[in-house]
Amino acid sequence: MKRGWMNAGGVAGLALLLAVSSAGAASRKDSIDRLAAKYTELKQFNGALLVADDKGIILKKGYGQANFEWQLPVTPDTKFRIGSVTKQFTAALILKLVEEGKVGLEDPITKHLPDYRQDTGSRITVTHLLNHTSGIPSYTSRPDFGEKVSRNPYKVADFVKQFASGDLEFEPGSKYAYNNSGYFLLGTIIEKVTGKTYAQVLRERIFEPLGMKNTGYDVSETLLAKRASGYERNPDGFVNAAYLDMGLPYAAGSMYSTVEDLYLWDRALYGDKVLPAALKQKMFTPGLGDYGFGWNLEPTQLDDGKTKVATTSHGGGINGFSAFLIRVPEKKEVIIVLSNVGRGVRARSLAAGVLSVLHGVTPQTPLKPIGEVVWESLAKGTATDAITRYKAVKVKNPTEYFFGPGELNSVGYRLMQGGRLPEAIEIFKFNVELFPQDGNVHDSLGEAYLAHGDKVQAVTSYRRSLELDPTNTNAEKVLKQLEQPAAK
C-alpha cells in the first residue's frame, strides 16, 4: 500500500492543528492547576486532584499536606479514605452476584439474611437497599452516633441487630432517603452469599483484576504506606479529626484509595471488565431522587449558572476526609478530588469549577470563608458583635467572601462544642434569617434549641426543616420523639 499520500501543505496543516490542540490542552491544565491552588490557598482544599478526558490524563497533582504536623506533602499516590464513594464498589459487587445468579434484585433481604427481622425484611428488596428507598433508619442519623457509637468496635451481625434493624420510616419503595444502613446490609449479604469477608471479596473481584494496588478496606491499626492523616477545618484553623472505628462505615464507606487507582476504576467502567452492559445500565438508571445503584445521576450545573452537563457522580464524607468523583460518560471525562480534610473543604465546588474549564466556561474564583471572620469576632466579643461584623463585610466586600449557609452553621456548631449555647442559638437564628428556605439551617437551629432544653422552639424549627426538606429523616425522627404524648 502506498503511504506517501500527504503533500507538504497537508503536513504543515496537520502540524499547526496539533500545535493548537497541544496549546489548548496546556491552557486547560494551567487553568485547572491555578484553580486548585487558589482553593488550597484559601484552606478550602487540601489533597489530590486528577482530571482526564478521552485522550488521557490532563492533570494529576497533590496540593497541601498529607500530614500537617510533619509537613509531608500530598502526592498523586497518597492514600485517602473515600467515604461513601465506597458505595459504587458495593453496588458493583452485588451486581456481579446478580450476574452469577446468586442474588436477585427483587429478592427480599430475608432470603439472604434469615436472621433479620421478618416483619420488615420480607418487604425490603435488594433494589431498595441499592437505591436508598428501603425506609430503614440510617444509623449515622442517630443523634448519639458520633458521641456514643462511632468509636466502638462491633461484629457485623451485632451491628446489624442493634443499629440497622429499626422500625421503617416509610413504606419500602415509596420514598428516597440516603441511607448508610442499607449499604451496611448489602455488605452483609455479600459476605453471606460468598462465604468471605467483604474486604476479601472487594480485593478478589475488583481491586486485583483492575490493578488497583493502592486501594483497600481501611483498618486503623494496619501500617499503611503513604496514608494521609485526617483533619477538620474549624473557623479557627485545622484540627485532628475525631477517631472513628473503620468497621462501622463498612460497605457504606470504609475504603481508601488514590486518585490514580480511581482513574483505573473510571476507565474500567467503559468496558465489560467490571460488569456486562445490561447490568451497568441498571447501575446507571436513575430511580427516586435521581439515584441509581451507588451513583447520583442528576446533571451538574457549570459555573456560568445556566449550562448543565449530564454526569454520574458521588461524594464521600467521613471523619477527616472528603471525596468527590464526577464523570461525563459521553466525553469520557472524569474529575477525582480526594481530600484529607473533612468538614470545611469544598470538594464539590472545586470539581464543578474544573468541569467548567473542561467545557469552556470560566470557573468561579473561590472566595474567602466568612466563617473565619465571624469566629474572630466571637473570640473578642459577643454574637451580636459577630453578626454586625458579618453584615459590614457583606456590604463592603460582597465579592471577596463566600457567604454560603454552611459558613455560619460551622460557627454555630463550634460554639455548641464549646458549651456556648446561647451564642450558638443567636448565630443559627441569624443564619435562618439569611437562608429561610434552607431546610438544613432550620434543622441546626432546632438541634441548638433542643440542646438548650427549649423543646417548644426545637419542634418549631424541626417542623419547618421537614416542610422544606421532606427527606430529612433526622428531623422526622426527632419530632416523633418530642411530640409523643407523655406517659400517664
Summarize the structure.
The protein is of the alpha+beta class. It is 45% helix and 13% strand.
Secondary structure layout plus pairing:
Elements lengths: L7 H34 L5 E7 L2 E8 L1 E3 L4 E2 L6 E2 L4 H14 L18 H4 L4 H5 L14 H5 L6 H8 L16 H15 L3 H13 L5 E2 L13 E4 L2 E4 L9 H4 L1 E3 L1 H10 L8 H7 L16 E2 L6 E2 L2 E7 L2 E8 L4 E7 L7 H12 L9 E2 H11 L2 H14 L4 E2 L2 H13 L3 H14 L4 H13 L3 H14 L4 H11 L5
Parallel strand pairs: 15-16
Antiparallel strand pairs: 1-2, 1-14, 3-4, 5-9, 6-9, 7-8, 10-11, 12-13, 13-14
* Overall geometric form: globular
Oligomer: single chain
Sheet/helix structural class: alpha+beta
State the low-pLDDT regions, or none: 1-21
Q: Please give the largest β-sheet.
A: 5 strands, antiparallel
Rg of Cα set = 24 Å
Instruction: Report the CATH C-level class of the largest domain.
Output: Alpha Beta
State which percent range the strand residues make up. 5-15%
- CATH-defined superfamily of the largest domain: DD-peptidase/beta-lactamase superfamily
Tally of individual domains? 2
Lateral strand order in the biggest sheet: 2-1-14-13-12
Do you know the CATH architecture of the largest domain?
Answer: 3-Layer(aba) Sandwich
Q: What's the mean pLDDT score?
A: 90
- Number of helical runs? 19
Q: What is the CA–CA distance across the termini?
A: 96 Å
CATH fold annotation of the largest domain = Beta-lactamase
Tally of DSSP β-strands: 16
**Proportion of helical residues:** 40-55%
Give a written overview of the molecule:
With 488 residues, the chain is α+β, with helices and mostly antiparallel strands. The chain has 2 domains: 81-358, Beta-lactamase; 368-483, Tetratricopeptide repeat domain (Serine Threonine Protein Phosphatase 5, Tetratricopeptide repeat, Alpha Horseshoe). It is built from 19 helices and 16 strands. The chain has helices at 8-41, 86-99, 118-121, 126-130, 145-149, 156-163, 180-194, 198-210, 250-253, 259-268, 277-283, 347-358, 370-380, 383-396, 405-417, 421-434, 439-451, 455-468, 473-483; strands at residues 47-53, 56-63, 65-67, 72-73, 80-81, 216-217, 231-234, 237-240, 255-257, 300-301, 308-309, 312-318, 321-328, 333-339, 368-369, 401-402. The protein has a 5-stranded antiparallel sheet with strand order 2-1-14-13-12, sandwiched between helices. Strands 5-9-6 form a 3-stranded antiparallel sheet. α2 (86-99) crosses α7 (180-194), α6 (156-163) runs antiparallel to α7 and α18 runs antiparallel to α19 (473-483). The radius of gyration is 24 Å and the shape is globular. Residues 1-21 have low confidence and may be disordered.
